[in-house]
């Protein structure tokens, strides 16, 4: 726990994904190596014990094959020993033959005091130990002993057969010493293998987490503005993450663009009422007329502010809206524009079908008519024509609408139409304006699934802007 620069208490910081995976994999590897080492150790001890028992059994079998008895039943010692240690006193490997009336022992039994050996029945095996012994130097030790009983067939004597037992003994320390040597080698090699595997594991983990580091680097570039979006070259597991980040970035960019456009549209919409007020202030109008004009334009500006803010927040229009009569809105807009362009004597004519209605937001209608008419007044020589007619009709659906504005200005060359309709582009840089009026018209027309056509006016010779709205629901 600690405190950050802003004074907030900082909690425990979670480990990184690489540290978590490396720790978990290392613990798993160590547990596996420990279990494998223990299993190998136990297997070696069991196998070594079994091998020792088999070795002692093989020595006993070798003695049973080599020793003989004379006609009197006396044992004839073997001339050769199965292991040279049987010939060295106190070597740690001992052999004894127990007879009913005596016995025989190897040279290695000289010196140490071995445990008493009993006669076993024929065919009986016995493995025991560790048994205590006293070595020739007076120290104590332990041995493992294997014994097996045999029957000798004496055809020359009255007794047809007699028993004897062969014992093989070996120091008990031989097996532990082998186990110690094996364990030292085993854990040494497992330790080296563990270090190598941990190193390989760290390299593999670093390689497998490289896409995450790449995503982190790309995200930092997006945050710093050095890239617009995340790339698409990522593993399948990371594609949902990068796509979500791209969607979030795009959404934020669109929201920011929408906010900027809303402010620009609001500023553009307020430009006409402000121009009307300035024109009226510079004119010789009476106080009563000036007061009326100020009240009208302030009301319109208030409506425009409410409309633009609501449009920016909602991002659309009502699906079911009451039909709006168009002529009153057109007359109010034209009166203001005629005052602004009074010095040029521009006149606007109406050809409005009384049956035509706009099914939408009043603010959308004001913006649509206001921007089209203002553009026409700006470029007209003396005449502007507003035409409003019902559009195409469909059974059980609201009728469409056609709104066209013609002017007798210079017109727009066909190759420049798409350029002029772009936001922020003006048809002539020498003409005052912001170049966003027509883009506002396009946004409104697009929201009503309509079309905006720009052609040459056949009646006035200038430009013709025609908006066609399709039938509604």
Structure description:
The chain has 473 residues and is of the alpha+beta class. It has 2 domains: 15-208, no CATH class; 316-469, 2-Layer Sandwich (Heat Shock Protein 90). Helices cover 46% and strands 20% of the residues. It has helices spanning 17-66, 174-208, 210-223, 239-282, 287-314, 327-340, 362-379, 417-420, 437-447; strands at residues 2-3, 9-10, 68-69, 75-76, 93-99, 102-105, 125-134, 140-153, 161-171, 323-325, 347-352, 357-359, 383-390, 401-407, 451-456, 463-469. A hairpin with a 7-residue loop joins β8 (140-153) and β9. α4 runs antiparallel to α5 (287-314) and α4 (239-282) packs across α6 (327-340). The protein is rod-shaped, with a radius of gyration of 54 Å. The model is unreliable at 427-434 (pLDDT under 50). Residues 265-473 form the Histidine kinase domain. It catalyses: ATP + protein L-histidine = ADP + protein N-phospho-L-histidine. It is found in: Membrane. Its main location: membrane.
